[in-house]
Amino acid sequence: EKGGFGTFMEKEIHDQPKAVEDTLLGRTDASGRLVLDELRIDPEELKGISKIIVLACGTSAYAGMVAKYAIEHWVRVPVEVELSHEFRYRDPIIDDSTLIVSLSQSGETMDTLMAVRYAKEQGARTLAICNTNGSTIPRESDAVLYTHAGPEIAVASTKAFLAQITASYLLGLYMAQLRGKLFQGEIEDILADLHKIPGKIQEVLDGGDQIRELAREMAQEPSVLFLGRHVGYPVAMEGALKLKEIAYIHAEGFAAGELKHGPIALIDQGQPVFVVVPSPHGRDSLHAKVVSNIQEVRARGARTITVAEAGDGDVVDYSETVFYVPETQPLLMPLLTTVPLQIFACALAAEKGYDVDQPRNLAKSVTVE
Ligand code: M6R
User: Fold this and answer.
1) What atom of ligand 1 comes closest to residue 160's alpha carbon?
2) pLDDT digit string (tens) for 88-115?
3) How confident is the model at residue 32 (pLDDT cuts 50, 70, 90)?
4) Catalytic residue at 352?
């Protein structure tokens, strides 16, 4: 049942090309238009939405942060992302033109369920992105978009995360299509690039030995930092969470721009810092700014490990180790840049002899508030 792998987590990391492919499957018609009939929500209603609030916890909340970047860019509707357990306690502004998008692998996370119930009482429309058919959150929501990652057994979420990001892109593109915010040709181009992602994830998986080797070498590190920007920021947070959860190492993810506002004081001789580098083909000067962040931490003694797009030569001089991922659209990069960080955490935890699938103190689905 572990598909020849030693742990469910390894198997699930390797299931990711299929998880993304299956989540994309059957969601376009013969003419290439997105059809999300299963949503059970009136397209007219989706056209009238004035604000989206994404609610989730843990890894699912990082998928929600990626969703914000994509949906705001494509649909031009404001998107807030909030941890489910914080949401109800801040007196949020909600009305019937607010769409709540919940992200939950299990569909049973009590914090998220309670937040969705609260939003419904306030008159919001609710849409669940969920990996578990017939679970409570989608049952109680107006609409549902299922991720098709298949059952996820390991406590640390991997393939469900990539599937949630994929489904969020589909939702964004569908709303952009409904509201005429992107040309049909643009939507088709993005979908074509999404369909190429599973093969590219496979390429990253095929290069896994380099990452596992580094993990073995770094098993005794007491602390690891992760930096990212734009969609690389939630990826950095996710890389840190994976290490905390299964390898019990102190790890923190930061927005790279925040470095000089405090965290750079943590950098000392030999401190490992992973940097998720934006595409050199992305917007504005983000890439150059992150490259200069790598230089800054390295100048203070950090051991820099970068995850960069294939062909990005600018990082080489400042990185002890570079993991290259294939090129794709800048907004789609998290589907690739996350994978080396998952492999790293999994291999490091295994090296330390920990139970990768059942980390201490954690449950797969958190059904208490
Ligand atoms: O089932 P959910 O997606 O609602 O779960 C949310 C979090 O509890 C979950 O993502 C948790 O952070 C994982 N252990 C992360 O690996």
Assistant:
1) 3
2) 999 999 999 999 999 999 999 999 999 9
3) confident
4) no
CA distance 63 to 81: 10
Q: Which DSSP string do the residues of 210-231 spell out, in sequence order?
A: HHHHHHHHTTT-SEEEEEE-TT
82: left (phi over 0), alpha (psi -120 to 50) or beta: beta
* Element counts in the chain: helices (H) and strands (E): 13, 10
Nearest to 170 by CA among 341, 38, 328: 38
Tell me the DSSP string of 117-137: HHHHHTT-EEEEEESSTT-HH
Tell me the three state secondary structure of residue 308: strand
Which one, of 47, 126, 42, lies nearest residue 84 by Cα?
A: 126
Return d(Cα 104, Cα 83) in angstroms, integer.
12
Q: Please state the separation of Cα 177 from the chain's center in Å.
A: 23
Residue of minimum CA distance from atom 14 in ligand 1: 156
